[in-house]
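Section 5: illustrative case.
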């Protein structure tokens, strides 16, 4: 019996990943940059054992159906082949997500699975190797190996596509991200399908790709200079451009709901009134607002008269993945 356990935190991209160059290996079309957060994480234990004949996957103590289990099994196959092991496994995952729900993330889930499975089979992977492995489960998971800011460098092969930590002199600790949960039901178009349709059909996709290097450079400069306004501006611009590509896809689609637009307008209004804050969105209608930590309370107060408290979740910078031992 071989057992391993890991805790990984979710991350939100400030410069978005949108589009795959290689579907199978999950090599992206562009570099992306993220902030790992403390508010949502996944703890996963993997036990490889001779006593079972097929993989079993429990999420929040519920045995999952074959569809969910096949995804996990495929990922475990990668780890098994690296370790020359053919044992089946029991996977127990717990998502620690604030009550607002709907924010469970594949990033923390697949990063924790990669960490736990590789620890169980004693693969002893360096962070960049673990990032490569997590990438194969879900692209954004490769950034959750690191705490604070991370850049997923697209590379051009399985070997060269992984995330790295961005030095920041602790700037991430000056930031807060407030999640506005406008809808916690499952999304209609997965990020996988959405990005594929966009790459293949959107007239705006080439524009997206040419603009990413400049946005990435701006974001890295802003982090190096601890320039919140510059980071916020480029974060919001990256999200708007990514979402813009979906409108020109065929068939066109959007992840925005009427409520998302209301929240985006509210953020602009609060900003026009003098409080620096910027929004970003992913493949769903929820809005995340970046603000300086010193202004977190003021922002919550400004949001309070428009948005119910239960819809708001506050997050701060989170740590790197942790391989858990009996002691913790
Ligand atoms: O790796 P996935 O399938 O969770 O895709 C993530 C896509 C976005 O959240 C929209 C952007 C990003 O970089 O996280």
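Designed sequence:
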């Amino acid at each position: 019996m071989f057992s391993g356990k890991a805790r990984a935190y979710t991350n939100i991209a400030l410069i978005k990943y949108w589009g795959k160059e290689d579907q199978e290996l999950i090599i992206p079309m562009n570099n992306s940059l993220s902030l790992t957060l403390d508010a949502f994480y996944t703890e996963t234990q993997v036990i490889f054992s001779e006593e079972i004949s097929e993989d079993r996957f429990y999420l929040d103590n519920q045995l999952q159906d074959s569809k969910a289990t096949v995804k996990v099994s495929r990922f475990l196959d990668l780890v098994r082949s690296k370790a020359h092991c053919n044992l089946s496994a029991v996977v127990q995952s717990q998502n620690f997500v604030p009550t607002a729900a709907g924010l469970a993330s594949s990033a923390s889930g697949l990063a924790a699975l990669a960490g736990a499975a590789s620890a169980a089979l004693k693969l002893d992977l360096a962070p960049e190797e673990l990032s490569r492995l997590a990438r194969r489960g879900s692209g954004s998971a490769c950034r959750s190996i690191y705490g604070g800011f991370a850049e997923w460098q697209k590379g051009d092969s399985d070997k060269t596509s992984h995330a790295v930590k961005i030095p920041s002199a602790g700037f991430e600790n000056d930031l807060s991200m407030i999640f506005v949960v406008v809808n916690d039901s499952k999304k209609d178009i997965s990020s996988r399908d959405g990005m594929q349709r966009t790459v293949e059909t959107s007239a705006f996709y080439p524009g997206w790709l040419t603009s990413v290097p400049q946005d990435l450079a701006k974001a890295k400069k802003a982090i190096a200079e601890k320039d919140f306004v510059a980071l916020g501006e480029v974060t919001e611009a990256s999200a708007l451009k990514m979402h813009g590509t979906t409108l020109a896809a065929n068939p066109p689609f959007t992840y925005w709901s009427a409520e998302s637009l209301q929240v985006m307008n509210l953020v602009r209004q609060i900003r026009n009134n003098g409080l620096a804050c910027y929004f970003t969105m992913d493949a769903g209608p929820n809005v995340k607002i970046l603000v300086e930590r010193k202004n977190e309370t003021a922002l919550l107060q400004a949001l309070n008269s428009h948005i119910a408290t239960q819809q708001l979740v506050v997050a701060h910078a989170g740590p790197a993945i942790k391989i858990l031992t009996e002691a913790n």
